[in-house]
Design a protein that fits this description.
The chain is mainly α. It contains 1 helix and no strands. The protein has one helix at residues 9-26. The N and C termini lie far apart (61 Å).
Length: 64
Amino acid sequence: MQLFAKTNYKRSDKLMGTLDSLNNIMGKDTVFIAAQGVERSWHTLSQKCSPAFTTNWNDLPIVK
């Protein structure tokens, strides 16, 4: 990509219109340009994970 290359504004406007339409239908910032960056406003709910984990093969249940 060249810094001072000619820009096809018709194509760019069509792309931006498509992104705007998708975001209007699906919700704000559903689709965005990667240059905007990604800020996670959500976190995994680790307190909801099962405490029934094991690190010992002998503790695993046997299914017959």
